[in-house]
Amino acid sequence: MWMLMALLLMTFSACNDDDNHAEATHFVDYKVAVIMPFSQAELHTRFRQTAQWALSTLEKAQRGAAQGIRLQLEWFDESAYDMNVLGKELANRADIVAVVGPYTSTNAQQMAYQCAMTGKMMITPAASSEEFVRAFSRQNFLWSLVETDISQCEVLLSKAITYGAKSVSLLTSDDIYGNTFNDWFAFQAAELGLQVVDIQVYGADNLQVTAQQMVRSEADYLVCVASDTDAVRTILEAKKARGDVGPRLLFTDGAMTPDLLSLGTLANGVEGVSMYADPTSGFELAYEVHFNETPMGAEARLYDALLLIAFALADQNATGETNLNESMKRVVSGTGTEVLAWDEVGIYRTLSAIGAGHYFNITGAGGSLKFDAEVHTNVLQTVYCHWYAYEGKIIVLDFCSSDGGNRTDATLANWNWQVQQQQIFDDGATGIEYADLHRQQALLIAGSSGWGNYRHQADVLYMYQLLKQNGYSDDDIVLIVADDIAHHASNPFPGVVRVSPTGTNLYQDVVVDYDINQLHPDDIRAILAGESSDHLPHVIDADQHTNVLVFWSGHGARGEFNWLKAKTGFTHDLMAQTLTQLSAQQKYRKMLWLIETCYSSSVAKASVGVPGVLCFAAADELEVSFADIYSQELGAWMTNRFTRNMTEAVTDNPAICYRDLYYHMQRNTLGSHVKVHNAPMFDNLYLGTIDEFMTSVN
Predict the structure, then answer these.
(1) C-alpha span between 399 and 416 (Å, rounded)
(2) Does 24-124+284-365 match 439-694 in CATH topology?
(3) Rounded CA gap, 627 and 642, in Å?
(4) What is the mean pLDDT of residues 120-138?
(5) Is the pTM of this model over 0.85?
(6) In what order do the strands lie in the sheet with 514-515?
(7) 439-694: CATH architecture
(8) CA end-to-end span of the chain
(9) Which of its termini does the chain have fewer beta carbons within 10 Å around, N or C?
(10) What is the CATH number of domain 149-276+386-406?
(11) Residue 299: which of 90, 145, 79, 105 has the closest Cα?
(12) Angle of the 324-332 helix axis to the 299-319 helix axis, nearest 10
C-alpha cells in the first residue's frame, strides 16, 4: 500500500512542478564517466534509460533551489577499450569527478588499479568478485553497491536447502567472476550442513565436456556459474540431453540477462539468483510504469550510483571538502532518520539535510545504502531475487538476502565469515613414548615463484627469521625459495621483503639453500630422509632425538601441493611414501607440518596413522586458502591468512598448546576450515606445546 502511495506522491510532485518550484535554479554541471557493456543491445538500452531517469528525477528534485547539481554522463563501452589504458586516462582527467562501472569484475579490477593511483571515486553497480573488492577495500576510493559473491553463494546454497537439498555440486567458470564461487562454495556448504559432491572449473575449451559430466552429478542441486549466454546454452543443452534425471540447476546472476530469453524453449524452466531492486523501495513498480518492462539485476544500483555521486557533491559544496570520497563517507554513514532517497521527494529531503549538515540513514532503489563501517567499500546487505524463465519472460518468484549473522561483526565486510565447525580432540594420553629431545631442524618451502606469488616467499622468510630469533642456526634450517622477489624489477623497495606494509625487512642475513627451480618434488622426500648427494648437499640430518618442522607455503590442487608450474607436484601418494619411509627409518622424534596451500587437507590426510606426525592444514579438501593484506604499492598480496594467524599466535605465546593454537587459527582464518590431522597418533594436544618445534634446544 505504501509503495502505491509513494508513486502517487511522485506523480503529484511531478504534476505540480511549476507551483512548487517557481524560481529558476542555477545548475552546476559535473562530468561522470559511465562504463557499461554495449554488446548486449537491450541491456545497453536499459542502462541508458535508467541513467536518464535518475538524472531527470535529480534535476526535478532541485528546482527552486538557488543552486543545483547536474550530472553530465560520458559513456564508454567496456568491451571496446583496454581498461588499463582507459582507466589511466579517466583517473587523471580533472574534469571527471567519478567513474561508474565497469559492469564486469574483470574490467572493474583493471579500472580500480588505475583509480587507486589518484584516488578517483569509483562506484561499481554490479562487479561483485570477492578478490576484486577485498584487494581495494582499504584504499578509500572504491564504492561497491552490491555485496561480493560470497553473499550470492550463501543465498544460492540457502535456496537449495529451502527446497530440501542435502547435497550440492558446483560448476564454475575459470575467471575472476567464477573464482569467488570456487573459493567459498565448499566452505559455506560445510557451514550450512550440506554435503559437497563435486566442484569443477571450466574454461572455454572444455565447458561442453565438463557440463556433461556435472549434469550426471549425484548431488541434489548443481550451482552453475555462467557469465554469458553462450555458457548458459551449453549447460542447458547438456542438461536437456540428460533428461529429467540428475541434479536441479541453479544459475548465478550472470545468467539473468535479456539475452537469456533468446534461447527460446531451451530457457524454459531455468532458474537462479540475482541481485535485484529492494521490493519495499517501490523502484520495481515505478520502473514498470516508466518503461513497460520489469528491471533486471543492475538498473537499481546504477540509479543509486548516480544519486550517491550527487549527494557526495552536495556535501562537498556544503562543507568545502576537497576529497569527494570523504564526502561520500559522511553521506553513507548517517545514523539519523531512515529515508527512502531515490524518488523526487527523497532526493529533495536528502539534499536539504546534507546542506544543513545532517545525514540521514538512506535507502536507495536497490536497498540499504549502509556501508561497511570499517573499510566502507561495499554495502552491508544486498537484496537478491529468485528468478525463473518461462514462456519468454523472466519471473521473480521471491526475495532473499544473506545472513549478516554469519559475519564476525555486523559492521565488517562480508568476507569475514565466522567459522562454526570445530574439531574436537581427545584430552587423554596417546600411549606413544618419545625419546629425549636433543635437536630441532626445519625445512621451509615456498612452492611458487614470480612477483604475483610474493606472499609465499614472504611467509617462508618470516618463518625463517622467527626460527632464527628463537635460536635456530642456518645449519638447522633448509630453506627452499625461488629467491626472485627481493630484487625483482617490480619491487619498489629493492632488497626488501615484508609481510605487512610497515613490517621489518625479512630479507636480511638470509642463507638460501636451494632455488626451487633446480629441484623436483621427490627431492623433498630425499631431503627429509637425509639422502645427501652432489645434487642435494643440504639435508635434514635427523634421528629419533630430533624434532622436525616442515612449513610449506604455495599453491595447491586437490591431492597435491603445486610445484612451480610443473604438471605434477608433491602429491598425496608422495607424502604417504615420505612419511612411511621416515617413520620406518626413525628419521624424526616428532614431526610437525604447517601447510599453507589450497586444498591442503587432501595431502595432509596422508599423515593419518603415522606415529609422531601432526599436520596443520590451512583448508579442507575442497577449500582454498586465502591471501591477506594487499599492498597497492607492490601490486601484490603480502601474506596469507593461515600463516599470519599462526605466526601471530606463536609470537604472542611461544608455549601455546596445540589445541589453543588450533582454536585461535580456526576462529581467525576466515573463509576456510583449518584442519588438524593425525592428532591421535601424535600427542595430547591440550598438554603438548609448539615451542618444542619453534624454540631451539640445540
Answers:
(1) 23
(2) yes
(3) 9
(4) 91
(5) yes
(6) 514-515, 477-481, 439-446, 546-553, 590-596, 613-617, 675-677
(7) 3-Layer(aba) Sandwich (3.40)
(8) 78
(9) N
(10) 3.40.50.2300
(11) 145
(12) 110
